[in-house]
Every structure is written in C-alpha cells, then in structure tokens.
Write a structure and sequence with these properties.
Radius of gyration: 21 Å
Largest sheet: none
Low-confidence stretches: none
Number of strands: 0
Distance between the termini: 71 Å
Number of helices: 4
C-alpha cells in the first residue's frame, strides 16, 4: 500500500504567504528592536568621542553630517517610535484590550501609521536636518 502524500507544502515559499497586518507589525517590532540594539555601540562611541574635547566634538559633527548617517538615524528614529507604539499595543493586548479580530487589525494599522507619521513629524521639526 502506498502511503498518502502529506497535504502540507514541501517547499515553503515565503513570498506567497499573505501575512496579516498584526504579524507584519510583530516582525517590524522585532526588527526595530534589533536595530536599536545594534546601534548602541555606534552611539556609545560617538558620544565618547563628542565628550572627549572640541576636536572630538567636531569629528562627531562631521560624522553625523554625512547623508548615509542621517538616513540611518532616520531609520533608527522610525525604529524607536514603531517599537514604542507596538509595545504599547502589546501591553494593551496583554491587558485584554483589542483581542478580537477587527480591533486587533485596526490597532495594527494604527501602529504602522503612527510610526510613520511620528517619524515625519520628527523629520519636519528639523531634528535630523
């Protein structure tokens, strides 16, 4: 007798999976946390250099004035704000708020939009200019 083939996929094709917004927010929450942790050594070194004296402060300013550093800071600001908003959402879920399907979807969209809008507001205030 021939055994039946399993009905599960043999090769998992990630680009074909339709991830719900709550799952997407969860992944972004983890990615933003990893980005912030990876930025700690760079920020610590730059802070140490800036506090070492006038020459170190000028060197830190020159480092921060590069375009790629400004873009990295923008991503870090988004990561911090997204991580904050997603963390508040997860705290609310842990307290029992928004556990039904539709409120969970709405809160996931709110987190995504709030992170982008708050980042745009920080950028608009000229913090990274």
């Amino acid at each position: 007798m021939i055994p039946a083939r399993p009905k599960r996929p043999v090769f998992l094709e990630l680009w074909r999976i339709k991830l719900p917004m709550a799952g997407f927010i969860s992944i972004l929450h983890r990615v933003s946390g990893v980005l912030m942790v990876l930025a700690i050594p760079v920020v610590a070194v730059q802070f140490h250099e800036a506090m070492s004296g006038p020459a170190g402060f000028a060197a830190s300013l020159a480092f921060l004035d590069q375009l790629w550093v400004k873009l990295a800071l923008l991503v870090l600001v988004w990561g911090l704000l997204h991580h904050l908003f997603a963390g508040i959402r997860y705290l609310a879920l842990d307290l029992g708020f928004g556990l039904d399907r539709e409120p969970a979807r709405q809160s996931a969209w709110v987190v995504l939009i709030a992170g982008v809008v708050a980042t745009a507001l920080v950028l608009g205030r000229g913090v990274l200019a």
